Sequence to fold (328 residues):
Amino acid sequence: MNRLPDDGPLRVLVARAVFADIIDPLRAVAEVETTPDDAISPPKVLRQRLADKHGAFITGSERIDAALLDACPDLRVISTMTVGVDHIDLAACAERGIIVTHSPDVLTETTADFGFALLLAAARQIGDAERYLRAGKWSKWSVDLFAGADVHGSTLGIVGMGRIGQAIARRAALGFGMRVLYHNRTRLPPQIEAECRAAYRDLPRLLRESDHVLLAMPYSPQAHHLIGAQQIALMRPGATLVNIARGGVVDEAALAAALHSGHLGAAGLDVFEGEPQVHPALLDAPRCVLTPHIASSSMPTRRAMAQLAVDNLMAVLQGRPPLTPVTA
Ligand code: DGY
Fold:
Protein backbone atom coordinates (compact mmCIF):
# COMPACT_ATOMS: atom_id res chain seq x y z
CA MET A 1 0.00 0.00 0.00
CA ASN A 2 1.32 3.47 -0.86
CA ARG A 3 2.14 5.40 2.31
CA LEU A 4 3.05 8.97 3.05
CA PRO A 5 6.73 9.48 3.99
CA ASP A 6 7.55 9.92 7.70
CA ASP A 7 10.05 12.62 6.84
CA GLY A 8 10.95 14.61 3.74
CA PRO A 9 8.63 16.87 1.80
CA LEU A 10 5.27 15.88 0.40
CA ARG A 11 4.83 16.59 -3.29
CA VAL A 12 1.59 17.39 -5.11
CA LEU A 13 0.75 17.92 -8.77
CA VAL A 14 -2.08 20.28 -9.68
CA ALA A 15 -2.61 19.02 -13.21
CA ARG A 16 -4.55 22.01 -14.58
CA ALA A 17 -4.68 25.76 -14.02
CA VAL A 18 -6.86 26.24 -10.94
CA PHE A 19 -7.83 29.34 -8.92
CA ALA A 20 -4.48 30.36 -7.33
CA ASP A 21 -6.04 31.56 -4.07
CA ILE A 22 -7.64 28.13 -3.57
CA ILE A 23 -4.44 26.22 -4.40
CA ASP A 24 -2.06 28.40 -2.35
CA PRO A 25 -2.87 26.90 1.11
CA LEU A 26 -1.65 23.54 -0.22
CA ARG A 27 1.85 24.99 -0.24
CA ALA A 28 1.83 24.95 3.57
CA VAL A 29 1.77 21.14 3.56
CA ALA A 30 3.46 20.16 0.29
CA GLU A 31 5.66 21.21 -2.59
CA VAL A 32 3.17 22.04 -5.31
CA GLU A 33 3.80 21.70 -9.06
CA THR A 34 1.20 23.71 -10.92
CA THR A 35 0.17 23.98 -14.58
CA PRO A 36 -0.03 27.72 -15.30
CA ASP A 37 -0.59 27.22 -19.06
CA ASP A 38 -3.52 24.84 -18.38
CA ALA A 39 -2.15 22.37 -20.94
CA ILE A 40 -3.56 18.86 -20.72
CA SER A 41 -0.59 16.56 -20.18
CA PRO A 42 -0.55 13.65 -22.66
CA PRO A 43 -0.49 10.28 -20.81
CA LYS A 44 3.31 9.91 -20.98
CA VAL A 45 3.88 13.43 -19.67
CA LEU A 46 1.30 12.99 -16.91
CA ARG A 47 3.10 9.82 -15.85
CA GLN A 48 6.41 11.69 -15.68
CA ARG A 49 4.90 14.59 -13.77
CA LEU A 50 3.24 12.29 -11.23
CA ALA A 51 6.16 9.85 -10.84
CA ASP A 52 7.49 11.40 -7.62
CA LYS A 53 4.22 12.86 -6.26
CA HIS A 54 2.24 11.89 -3.16
CA GLY A 55 -0.93 13.72 -4.19
CA ALA A 56 -2.70 14.67 -7.42
CA PHE A 57 -5.32 17.33 -8.11
CA ILE A 58 -6.94 16.35 -11.40
CA THR A 59 -9.99 17.06 -13.54
CA GLY A 60 -11.97 14.85 -15.90
CA SER A 61 -9.34 15.44 -18.60
CA GLU A 62 -6.66 13.41 -16.82
CA ARG A 63 -7.04 9.65 -17.26
CA ILE A 64 -5.76 7.54 -14.37
CA ASP A 65 -5.11 3.91 -15.24
CA ALA A 66 -3.06 1.02 -13.88
CA ALA A 67 -0.07 1.73 -16.16
CA LEU A 68 0.13 5.28 -14.83
CA LEU A 69 -0.21 4.15 -11.22
CA ASP A 70 2.61 1.61 -11.69
CA ALA A 71 4.88 4.52 -12.56
CA CYS A 72 3.87 6.45 -9.40
CA PRO A 73 4.94 4.38 -6.39
CA ASP A 74 4.52 7.25 -3.90
CA LEU A 75 1.04 8.31 -4.92
CA ARG A 76 -1.31 8.24 -1.94
CA VAL A 77 -4.27 10.40 -2.92
CA ILE A 78 -6.00 11.43 -6.15
CA SER A 79 -8.46 14.27 -5.78
CA THR A 80 -10.63 14.94 -8.80
CA MET A 81 -12.53 18.19 -9.21
CA THR A 82 -15.49 16.32 -10.70
CA VAL A 83 -18.38 14.32 -9.39
CA GLY A 84 -17.97 11.70 -12.14
CA VAL A 85 -15.06 9.29 -11.72
CA ASP A 86 -15.19 7.35 -14.99
CA HIS A 87 -11.71 8.68 -15.90
CA ILE A 88 -10.16 6.85 -12.93
CA ASP A 89 -9.53 3.11 -12.63
CA LEU A 90 -10.92 2.78 -9.11
CA ALA A 91 -10.04 -0.91 -8.75
CA ALA A 92 -6.40 -0.22 -9.67
CA CYS A 93 -6.32 2.60 -7.08
CA ALA A 94 -7.86 0.37 -4.41
CA GLU A 95 -5.33 -2.41 -5.11
CA ARG A 96 -2.53 0.07 -4.44
CA GLY A 97 -4.15 1.66 -1.40
CA ILE A 98 -4.55 4.99 -3.17
CA ILE A 99 -7.40 7.10 -1.83
CA VAL A 100 -9.65 8.68 -4.48
CA THR A 101 -11.83 11.69 -3.66
CA HIS A 102 -14.29 13.64 -5.81
CA SER A 103 -16.46 16.77 -5.56
CA PRO A 104 -20.15 15.85 -5.26
CA ASP A 105 -23.00 17.92 -3.80
CA VAL A 106 -21.48 21.37 -4.36
CA LEU A 107 -22.38 21.18 -8.08
CA THR A 108 -25.83 19.61 -7.84
CA GLU A 109 -28.07 22.68 -8.15
CA THR A 110 -25.89 24.45 -10.72
CA THR A 111 -25.79 21.33 -12.90
CA ALA A 112 -29.55 20.86 -12.54
CA ASP A 113 -30.07 24.50 -13.61
CA PHE A 114 -28.01 23.83 -16.72
CA GLY A 115 -29.79 20.57 -17.53
CA PHE A 116 -33.04 22.49 -17.42
CA ALA A 117 -31.58 25.31 -19.51
CA LEU A 118 -30.54 22.79 -22.18
CA LEU A 119 -33.99 21.24 -22.13
CA LEU A 120 -35.64 24.63 -22.62
CA ALA A 121 -33.12 25.74 -25.24
CA ALA A 122 -33.50 22.52 -27.23
CA ALA A 123 -37.29 22.18 -27.02
CA ARG A 124 -37.81 25.86 -27.90
CA GLN A 125 -35.07 25.85 -30.58
CA ILE A 126 -33.23 28.79 -29.05
CA GLY A 127 -29.88 27.87 -30.65
CA ASP A 128 -31.19 27.64 -34.21
CA ALA A 129 -33.33 30.76 -33.69
CA GLU A 130 -30.41 32.84 -32.46
CA ARG A 131 -28.16 31.75 -35.33
CA TYR A 132 -30.97 32.59 -37.80
CA LEU A 133 -31.36 36.08 -36.36
CA ARG A 134 -27.61 36.77 -36.24
CA ALA A 135 -27.26 35.56 -39.84
CA GLY A 136 -29.63 38.35 -40.88
CA LYS A 137 -32.32 35.91 -42.03
CA TRP A 138 -35.17 37.38 -39.95
CA SER A 139 -37.37 39.39 -42.29
CA LYS A 140 -40.81 39.12 -40.64
CA TRP A 141 -42.77 37.69 -37.71
CA SER A 142 -44.49 34.51 -38.81
CA VAL A 143 -46.97 32.11 -37.33
CA ASP A 144 -44.80 29.00 -36.97
CA LEU A 145 -41.32 30.50 -36.88
CA PHE A 146 -39.25 28.18 -34.65
CA ALA A 147 -42.42 26.70 -33.21
CA GLY A 148 -40.95 24.06 -30.91
CA ALA A 149 -42.36 21.84 -28.17
CA ASP A 150 -43.76 22.96 -24.84
CA VAL A 151 -41.86 22.14 -21.69
CA HIS A 152 -44.39 23.20 -19.04
CA GLY A 153 -47.09 20.64 -18.45
CA SER A 154 -45.35 17.95 -20.51
CA THR A 155 -43.81 14.64 -19.36
CA LEU A 156 -40.13 14.52 -18.45
CA GLY A 157 -38.32 11.18 -18.21
CA ILE A 158 -35.12 11.34 -16.18
CA VAL A 159 -32.60 8.51 -16.58
CA GLY A 160 -30.32 8.51 -13.54
CA MET A 161 -32.03 9.70 -10.41
CA GLY A 162 -29.06 10.58 -8.22
CA ARG A 163 -28.61 13.99 -6.61
CA ILE A 164 -28.66 15.86 -9.94
CA GLY A 165 -31.57 13.88 -11.38
CA GLN A 166 -33.59 14.60 -8.23
CA ALA A 167 -32.78 18.31 -8.38
CA ILE A 168 -34.02 18.37 -11.98
CA ALA A 169 -37.18 16.49 -11.01
CA ARG A 170 -37.99 19.12 -8.38
CA ARG A 171 -37.56 21.93 -10.91
CA ALA A 172 -39.75 20.07 -13.42
CA ALA A 173 -42.56 19.14 -11.05
CA LEU A 174 -42.71 22.24 -8.85
CA GLY A 175 -41.59 24.93 -11.30
CA PHE A 176 -42.97 23.74 -14.62
CA GLY A 177 -45.92 21.58 -13.64
CA MET A 178 -44.45 18.59 -15.45
CA ARG A 179 -45.27 14.95 -14.95
CA VAL A 180 -41.98 13.33 -13.95
CA LEU A 181 -40.94 9.74 -14.67
CA TYR A 182 -37.57 8.31 -13.76
CA HIS A 183 -35.41 5.28 -14.35
CA ASN A 184 -32.55 4.34 -12.06
CA ARG A 185 -30.45 1.26 -11.31
CA THR A 186 -32.24 1.03 -7.98
CA ARG A 187 -35.67 2.35 -7.29
CA LEU A 188 -35.76 5.28 -4.85
CA PRO A 189 -37.40 5.03 -1.42
CA PRO A 190 -41.08 6.10 -1.50
CA GLN A 191 -40.48 9.32 0.44
CA ILE A 192 -37.91 10.53 -2.12
CA GLU A 193 -40.22 9.58 -4.99
CA ALA A 194 -42.95 11.58 -3.27
CA GLU A 195 -40.70 14.56 -2.61
CA CYS A 196 -39.59 14.62 -6.27
CA ARG A 197 -43.13 13.82 -7.46
CA ALA A 198 -41.53 11.21 -9.70
CA ALA A 199 -42.80 7.78 -10.76
CA TYR A 200 -40.50 4.85 -11.54
CA ARG A 201 -40.54 3.27 -15.00
CA ASP A 202 -38.37 0.67 -16.71
CA LEU A 203 -36.31 2.24 -19.48
CA PRO A 204 -38.44 1.22 -22.50
CA ARG A 205 -41.60 2.46 -20.84
CA LEU A 206 -39.98 5.72 -19.78
CA LEU A 207 -38.82 6.29 -23.37
CA ARG A 208 -42.29 5.57 -24.76
CA GLU A 209 -44.13 7.81 -22.27
CA SER A 210 -41.89 10.88 -22.14
CA ASP A 211 -42.06 14.07 -24.22
CA HIS A 212 -38.54 14.93 -23.08
CA VAL A 213 -35.83 12.52 -21.89
CA LEU A 214 -32.93 13.78 -19.81
CA LEU A 215 -29.84 11.66 -19.08
CA ALA A 216 -28.12 12.30 -15.73
CA MET A 217 -26.58 8.99 -14.72
CA PRO A 218 -22.91 8.18 -14.07
CA TYR A 219 -21.00 6.54 -16.92
CA SER A 220 -20.04 2.89 -16.60
CA PRO A 221 -19.22 0.30 -19.28
CA GLN A 222 -22.76 -1.08 -18.75
CA ALA A 223 -24.18 2.33 -19.67
CA HIS A 224 -22.21 2.52 -22.94
CA HIS A 225 -24.62 3.49 -25.75
CA LEU A 226 -27.55 2.85 -23.45
CA ILE A 227 -29.44 5.14 -25.80
CA GLY A 228 -28.93 3.75 -29.30
CA ALA A 229 -31.04 3.44 -32.43
CA GLN A 230 -33.43 0.92 -30.81
CA GLN A 231 -34.07 3.11 -27.77
CA ILE A 232 -34.43 6.25 -29.87
CA ALA A 233 -37.02 4.42 -31.98
CA LEU A 234 -39.05 3.91 -28.80
CA MET A 235 -39.10 7.64 -28.08
CA ARG A 236 -42.13 9.66 -29.08
CA PRO A 237 -42.01 11.38 -32.46
CA GLY A 238 -40.96 14.95 -31.76
CA ALA A 239 -39.41 14.10 -28.36
CA THR A 240 -36.34 15.88 -26.95
CA LEU A 241 -33.18 14.17 -25.72
CA VAL A 242 -30.92 16.01 -23.27
CA ASN A 243 -27.55 14.58 -22.18
CA ILE A 244 -25.65 16.00 -19.21
CA ALA A 245 -24.26 12.59 -18.17
CA ARG A 246 -21.36 11.42 -20.37
CA GLY A 247 -21.14 11.30 -24.15
CA GLY A 248 -20.58 7.55 -24.22
CA VAL A 249 -24.11 6.94 -22.94
CA VAL A 250 -25.56 7.92 -26.33
CA ASP A 251 -24.88 6.50 -29.78
CA GLU A 252 -24.25 9.88 -31.38
CA ALA A 253 -24.56 8.67 -34.98
CA ALA A 254 -28.00 7.23 -34.20
CA LEU A 255 -29.03 10.45 -32.44
CA ALA A 256 -27.88 12.61 -35.36
CA ALA A 257 -29.79 10.35 -37.78
CA ALA A 258 -32.97 10.73 -35.69
CA LEU A 259 -32.62 14.53 -35.73
CA HIS A 260 -31.96 14.60 -39.47
CA SER A 261 -34.92 12.29 -40.18
CA GLY A 262 -37.20 14.42 -37.99
CA HIS A 263 -38.12 11.54 -35.65
CA LEU A 264 -36.66 13.44 -32.69
CA GLY A 265 -37.84 16.98 -32.15
CA ALA A 266 -34.66 18.28 -30.56
CA ALA A 267 -31.53 17.47 -28.58
CA GLY A 268 -29.46 19.31 -26.01
CA LEU A 269 -25.97 17.92 -25.46
CA ASP A 270 -23.31 19.09 -23.01
CA VAL A 271 -21.13 15.95 -23.22
CA PHE A 272 -19.68 14.02 -26.16
CA GLU A 273 -18.11 10.63 -26.65
CA GLY A 274 -14.83 11.93 -28.10
CA GLU A 275 -14.82 15.36 -26.48
CA PRO A 276 -13.52 17.91 -27.19
CA GLN A 277 -14.20 16.45 -30.66
CA VAL A 278 -17.87 16.45 -31.62
CA HIS A 279 -19.37 13.89 -34.02
CA PRO A 280 -19.59 15.71 -37.39
CA ALA A 281 -23.17 14.53 -37.97
CA LEU A 282 -24.20 16.31 -34.75
CA LEU A 283 -22.51 19.54 -35.77
CA ASP A 284 -24.90 19.98 -38.66
CA ALA A 285 -27.94 18.27 -37.13
CA PRO A 286 -31.04 20.49 -36.92
CA ARG A 287 -32.69 21.47 -33.62
CA CYS A 288 -29.60 20.47 -31.66
CA VAL A 289 -28.05 22.63 -28.93
CA LEU A 290 -24.39 21.80 -28.27
CA THR A 291 -22.38 23.11 -25.31
CA PRO A 292 -18.76 22.35 -24.26
CA HIS A 293 -19.21 20.31 -21.04
CA ILE A 294 -20.08 23.31 -18.88
CA ALA A 295 -23.08 22.13 -16.86
CA SER A 296 -21.34 22.76 -13.51
CA SER A 297 -19.63 25.90 -14.73
CA SER A 298 -20.88 28.80 -12.70
CA MET A 299 -18.04 30.67 -11.01
CA PRO A 300 -19.26 30.01 -7.44
CA THR A 301 -19.70 26.31 -8.17
CA ARG A 302 -16.39 25.81 -9.96
CA ARG A 303 -14.69 27.54 -7.02
CA ALA A 304 -16.55 25.33 -4.55
CA MET A 305 -15.53 22.21 -6.50
CA ALA A 306 -11.88 23.30 -6.50
CA GLN A 307 -12.04 24.12 -2.79
CA LEU A 308 -13.50 20.72 -1.97
CA ALA A 309 -10.82 19.01 -4.08
CA VAL A 310 -8.11 20.92 -2.17
CA ASP A 311 -9.74 20.20 1.20
CA ASN A 312 -9.80 16.49 0.37
CA LEU A 313 -6.12 16.54 -0.64
CA MET A 314 -5.09 18.42 2.50
CA ALA A 315 -7.06 16.07 4.71
CA VAL A 316 -5.36 12.94 3.36
CA LEU A 317 -1.90 14.54 3.26
CA GLN A 318 -2.32 15.58 6.90
CA GLY A 319 -3.49 12.13 7.98
CA ARG A 320 -7.18 12.98 8.34
CA PRO A 321 -10.10 11.20 6.66
CA PRO A 322 -11.11 12.80 3.35
CA LEU A 323 -14.39 14.70 3.23
CA THR A 324 -15.81 13.06 0.11
CA PRO A 325 -14.02 9.82 -0.71
CA VAL A 326 -15.15 7.75 -3.66
CA THR A 327 -16.55 4.50 -2.47
CA ALA A 328 -16.02 1.83 -5.16
C1 DGY B 1 -18.38 16.26 -13.32
O1 DGY B 1 -18.18 16.88 -12.26
O2 DGY B 1 -18.35 15.04 -13.38
C2 DGY B 1 -18.63 17.10 -14.52
O3 DGY B 1 -19.06 16.36 -15.60
C3 DGY B 1 -17.39 17.88 -14.87
O4 DGY B 1 -16.46 17.04 -15.44
